[in-house]
Amino acid sequence: MFCCMVMRLNIDCNGCCRKLRKILLNMKEVETYMIEKQQCRLSVCGRFKPSDFAIKIQKWMNRRVEILEIHDFGVSSNGEMESTK
C-alpha cells in the first residue's frame, strides 16, 4: 500500500531540520519527502503504515507529532495508482 501523509511537528532550528532529514534518508520505506520549516510541516510518501511511521518520528525526534492528512493509494490491475479514499 502506497501512502502520502502530512504531519505537523516543531522544527524550530536548522539542527532539527538536519536531524529530521537524516532520519528520513535512512528509512527505506520513504520514497519522497518535503520539509516545510516555516509551516512546521512534513510531507512524506512511501510504503508504510501511517500510525507506525508517526510513532517512529516522534520517538527519534523527541517531539510531538500531529497527523494532518493521510492519502492511501492502491495499485490497479493495469499498474496505475488509484486513490482508495
From TrEMBL:
Gene3D superfamilies cross-referenced by the UniProt entry: 3.30.70.100
Bilayer-crossing regions: none
Entry-linked SUPFAM superfamilies: HMA, heavy metal-associated domain
InterPro entries: HMA_dom_sf
Lineage: superkingdom: Eukaryota
One Gene Ontology molecular-function label: metal ion binding
The protein's name: HMA domain-containing protein
Organism this protein belongs to: Rubroshorea leprosula
